[in-house]
Amino acid sequence: MKTIAILTIELYVECPYCGHAFDLLTDTSLNDDGFLIKQAISDDRWAIPAEDRIECEPECPQCETVFNVKGLEW
Ligand SMILES: [Zn+2]
Fold first, then answer.
1. Is the pLDDT of residue 46 over 80?
2. Measured in angstroms, how far is the CA atom of residue 19 from the centroid of ligand 1?
3. Tens digits of per-residue pLDDT, 58-68?
4. Is the dihedral of CA 42, 46, 48, 53 positive or negative?
5. More confident residue, 59 or 33
6. How far is the CA of 43 from the centre of ligand 1 (A)?
7. Distance 2 CA to ligand 1 centre (A)
8. pTM for the whole thing?
């Protein structure tokens, strides 16, 4: 008997204005063609320090404020 392994990826940020936490990957406009996932974990990114690995400007789904995200902790 065998089964498959399931890998899940979440890329959470906390809005600096209202504190709402949300997954950046649920915003499809930010992750077009896997853009954010490639920034976070693709092979050519391992040489880049984690604090420089992600950069994007999401809009908070709760307070609708746009803010900057740079750096990754994992
Ligand atoms: Zn917010």
1. no
2. 6
3. 999 999 999 99
4. positive
5. 59
6. 32
7. 44
8. 0.80
